[in-house]
Amino acid sequence: MTRSELIAQLAASNQHLRQPDVELIVSTIFDEITEALARGDRVELRGFGAFSIKKRDPRTGRNPRTGTAVEVSAKAVPYFKPGKELRERVNGGPLQAPARKPRAPSPVG
User: Fold this and answer.
1) Mean confidence (pLDDT) of the chain
2) Interatomic CA distance for residues 34 and 41, integer angstroms
3) What is the pLDDT of residue 109?
4) Pick from 11, 19, 55, 58: most CB atoms within 10 A?
5) φ and ψ at residue 84, rounded to 5 degrees
6) Domain ranges of the chain
């Protein structure tokens, strides 16, 4: 789903909001998440997931075209960890624990 599709769907399901208002709401939410990550903050949306920043150390990479070594500088990359509720909805139900093998009966004495 693209941003414009999201805005159109939200506007259609919320008839009391005008499309420009929905565009402003969606843009504001995305801008706030982006600004928080740029500051190094973590953004947690309960039931949905958490956005955070992961640091990558500098390393020596390889140019795939020529094979020569290239120095890659340190950087921060955005990371998203889905929440339990989102994982459950995507997988079609509550999370299932792995099946356990039955235990042997314990001697009663």
Assistant:
1) 90
2) 10
3) 53
4) 11
5) -60, -45
6) 3-91
Chain Cα centroid distance, residue 6: 17
Q: What's domain 3-91's architecture?
A: Irregular (4.10)
**Contacts (Cβ under 8 Å, ≥6 apart) of 69:** 60, 61, 62, 63
> Do 34 and 3 touch, CB atoms closer than 8 A?
no
> What does the pLDDT read at residue 96?
57
Whether the Cβ atoms of residue 59 and residue 28 lie closer than 8 Å to each other: no
Q: How many CB atoms lie within 10 A of CB 22?
A: 19
Q: Which residues contact 83 (CB under 8 A, 6 or more apart)?
A: 45, 46, 47, 48, 49, 50
Q: Are 72 and 59 contacting, i.e. CB atoms less than 8 angstroms apart?
A: yes
